[in-house]
Specification:
heterodimer, A: about 325 residues, alpha/beta, Rossmann fold, 2 domains, two-stranded parallel sheet, 6 strands, about 55% helix, elongated, B: about 90 residues, alpha+beta, Alpha-Beta Plaits, 3 helices, 4 strands
């Protein structure tokens, strides 16, 4: 515990602007690629946007650059304070889920920055998605500051500030095609090396078709799945992934049936069945892992689907690999 | 967007004081104000983020909140840690 009483002088108020520099954009680009994932941080503390006075609004955000920049970039022409919490470089919603964007951190940060001496009013504007970690009534009790939950998206702030009322639309998270598209690079890049390694290894076992099948399967899970998410039927990510993986595996299954004239029909059938079992399981597993990126899956639901479908993925994958292996080696 | 069909959200309107905080913090429009009380209108859309429970002064809401992230849970299971954390930013 930090002894607040021992901090004699008020810490520095950092100056900031609403303009994003080329360096900021480069940082956003790298963050979207997943490069140095935990390093996109802002120094926690109090920031002055423009020339705020003791009556200026106070906005609260996390110390992830994308969060901080999303906030300040929509506040052009507004003089305000921004209180940046220490969320260890994690965005507002995820940090709120873990409690690092939370009541205790707000109380601590308000004390450390001596916000009560900087502004005359007693009101903090928080992003709505900070709410899972913050008990508004407790912040009031412990600091004297009222918590006001603004809209979900920073982009809606200018409109919100006109009336200080959020519309139902502003209060709802979405998961639009664009929201889903920006998530793809991180997952593709993360699986790129293992995918290529397996593809190269399988080239020597089963030829070009098999390596292509591996690449198609992984890309189906990492790229195609997020794009097609709303249009895949069923109510959980695993079965959605199985369906998509099955569709993508189909051409490879058929090609296993068609080519290689030197083999018997049951060798063809065995290998085709092997692919049809093994490939969709991989897509389904990657799809299941996309639950954390989505904006609407619950913990109890994800747990239920894990217990139900991970064994199915393991069995179909194992059996499929075994069949493909056996029938590749027989000839 | 599809969500799971069941969840752990329980709301007792008898304890509601009408502050409307749940309506403000819910990202999936699960609640609406019906006169002076909050009412569950889309309970099946709940993602168990816990925002309403944490911000309900009268404890009228209970939900087993947590992060609905399979990779975090798999990692927790593999490392034997109870606390589910993620490496996302």
């Amino acid at each position: 515990m930090i002894d607040i009483g021992s901090i004699k002088s008020r810490p520095e108020i950092f100056p900031t602007t609403s303009r994003l520099s080329r360096l900021d954009r480069r940082d956003h680009f790298l963050a979207r690629l997943g490069v140095r994932r935990s390093q996109h941080r802002v120094e926690p503390g109090l920031y002055a946007l423009g020339n705020p006075d003791p009556d200026s609004l106070v906005f609260v955000t996390s110390n992830y650059t994308l969060s901080f920049d999303a906030l300040r970039s929509v506040l052009g022409g507004i003089d305000a304070y921004i209180l940046v919490l220490d969320t260890r470089g994690i965005n507002v919603w995820c940090a709120a889920g873990k409690g690092t964007f939370g009541t205790n951190e707000i109380v601590l940060r308000v004390m450390i920055t001596r916000l009560g001496e900087v502004v005359r009013h007693r009101r903090l504007i928080l992003p709505q998605l900070g709410a899972p970690g913050v008990a508004a009534h407790e912040v009031k009790q412990r600091t004297g500051f009222w918590v006001e939950y603004g809209p979900v998206r920073a982009a809606d702030l200018p409109e919100y500030l006109k009336t200080r009322k959020a519309t139902a639309e502003m209060r709802q998270v979405r998961f639009t095609l664009q929201d889903r598209l920006v998530l793809i690079p991180v997952d593709v890049i993360r699986l790129l090396l293992p995918m290529l390694a397996v593809a190269v290894a399988l080239y020597f076992v089963g030829g070009f078709t098999l390596s292509l099948a591996v690449i198609a399967t992984v890309l189906a899970g990492t790229a195609l799945f997020p794009i097609l998410l709303p249009w895949l039927p069923t109510h959980n990510f695993s079965t959605k992934g199985f369906i998509l993986g099955g569709l993508v595996a189909l051409p490879f299954t058929l090609s296993a049936l068609l080519v290689h004239p030197g083999r018997t029909w049951w060798q063809h059938a065995g290998q085709a069945l092997g692919l049809l079992l093994a490939l969709p399981a991989v897509t389904a597993f990657i799809a299941l892992n996309f639950t954390g990126s989505s904006t609407f899956t619950s913990r109890s639901g994800v747990r239920r689907e894990m217990y139900r479908y991970i064994p199915a993925m393991a069995w179909t994958f194992g059996t499929g690999i075994l069949l493909t292996g056996i029938f590749s080696l027989i000839h | 967007m599809n969500a799971y069909l069941e969840n752990t959200l329980v709301y007792d309107p008898k304890l509601c004081n009408g502050c409307a905080m749940c309506v403000a913090v819910c990202p999936h429009a699960v609640y609406e104000m019906d006169g002076r009380l909050a009412r569950l209108v889309r309970p099946q859309a709940c993602m168990e983020c816990g925002a309403c429970q944490v911000n309900c002064v009268t404890n009228a809401i209970s939900v087993e909140s947590g992060v609905g992230c399979a990779s975090a849970m798999i990692r927790a299971a593999l490392t034997g840690r109870r606390e589910v954390t993620c490496d996302c930013s």
